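User: Modeling request: complex.
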Amino acid sequence: MNVVITGAAGFLGSRLANALLAHNSKISVARLVLIDLIQPSPYNDPRVTTLSVNLADPSAVDLIIQPDCHILFHLAAVLSGQAEVDLDLGLRVNFDATRALVETARRRAPNLRFVYTSTIGVFGGNLPSVINDLTAVTPENSYGSQKAMCELLLNDYARRGFVDSRIVRLPTVSIRAGTANRAVTSFASGIIREPLNGKFSICPVGTAQKLYLTSPHTVVQNIIHAATIPANALGSWRVVNLPGICVSVGDMIEALREVAGDQAASLVQFEQDEMIERMVASFPSQCDYSRATSLGFAVDKHFIDIIRYYIRDDLNASN
Amino acid sequence: MNVVITGAAGFLGSRLANALLAHNSKISVARLVLIDLIQPSPYNDPRVTTLSVNLADPSAVDLIIQPDCHILFHLAAVLSGQAEVDLDLGLRVNFDATRALVETARRRAPNLRFVYTSTIGVFGGNLPSVINDLTAVTPENSYGSQKAMCELLLNDYARRGFVDSRIVRLPTVSIRAGTANRAVTSFASGIIREPLNGKFSICPVGTAQKLYLTSPHTVVQNIIHAATIPANALGSWRVVNLPGICVSVGDMIEALREVAGDQAASLVQFEQDEMIERMVASFPSQCDYSRATSLGFAVDKHFIDIIRYYIRDDLNASN
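Assistant: Request completed. Predicted assembly structure:
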């Protein structure tokens, strides 16, 4: 399979590349093109090419979609915090670039499996306490609005047979290694990662705030799985809410305390940020993901395990 | 108030213009600009200007949105049948032109009340037997997909304070006077209108097919009402399913028979059209419109009354 990843220099994009190149990958990769605004670091693997591409550039699609491309993982996006500050940039990258990609796929690579990472941030407003794949999408943030517009477009292109799209809505990913990003949920990694690294971390929301989380390992598995399931298994609505776990910020800090002690837990400091608080409060925190599990998507178990995996796999690497 | 209507030469657009210019109009109109692809017929009213504008033309927005414009009724669209045949045209007119309008409003007339006529065709797929304003939007037609994308965009612009948008999802309008149009639901008018005019009419779906209908009079009242309700009454989701009545094609023909006799009813001939049948079957036929009525939108009573109003108001005019 010839595979392309956009956003490949990002945290999820680079994990996804590693997983696809691993011996036990569910997809047999002949060629892997890694694309990001800043050229991804070179890989010591003859299958890999890295490219610097600005998605906002109209010629970007020509570099990304080749007729012999089998799977595109389109992860690149302007994240929720930045999209809320700059509507135009968000529309250009999150919507226009995705549309240009799917339109180019239609013309040039109609059998392409187009895996699109949407977000549970498409949900907002007057939500039921537990959402599912048929909960109405009434976003209260621009990032979620733009992603939801792409879902509709990609689903319609799939329905018409123009591209084989598969759309997964990602829970908040925690614990991301590395540094803070411009997602409004960035703190959901920071409040664990920074204390484990001996640093203070600012939490912009209260301890009662509940989050819908997935571990990096599970979400990367699930993004790959989206490319491998038979298209007709998805039915006429190709959008799936990925499994996640519901935890409160207070629960997360208690799990941190249990694993790393009072000293670590005391490094979390609370400093309210109204924009973040409002946006995060509008996201769902519980989801009936039975459709996802029936399609074979994986599920995390306990947040404390996610902390332990982070310590085992990432703590030294990110120090 | 300075008011603009796009799609003003169409059936609803011209009724809307007439209603706004009437003595008893709920909106006091100082100036009314009527815009369509083909210049609307001149009005014998000094308040009215008519313009021929192609929405697909990038300069269209400059003609439509003036800084002193108070209300825009954006009705112009490529209809469902045509949007299904020509995806690109549908995207250009139904999505791109609407986006250009809202973006121009943001820059030039941020207090504009932007009334957008969406459709119950945004719904499709695995629907509950009775939908409501919080039923998930999973369209199975390109027209509905494009309208749903506009809903998200307009709602986000409103949330950010860039435009005062109000979005109403129209039921199938029946009985439209005049001739068939390119909506897949055009037959829902034709099977009554043509027999009342002594003509044969082709019905492309079976008698059991249920439809969600509104009369022209009620829907025009409701489109105007959308411009007059306080913005905050809509809350954070500015999309409302307009009230309609649920009737089967068989019920409609029986009502025709009751009003106009067996001879009229026998003029309806059945000739299956798979595309129309599939799309119409994907639309909802019943809706809990309690949010709409609590916002003051009007409701039709019986389909037989709609036939009688058509005979009283339109039959001679359309002969």
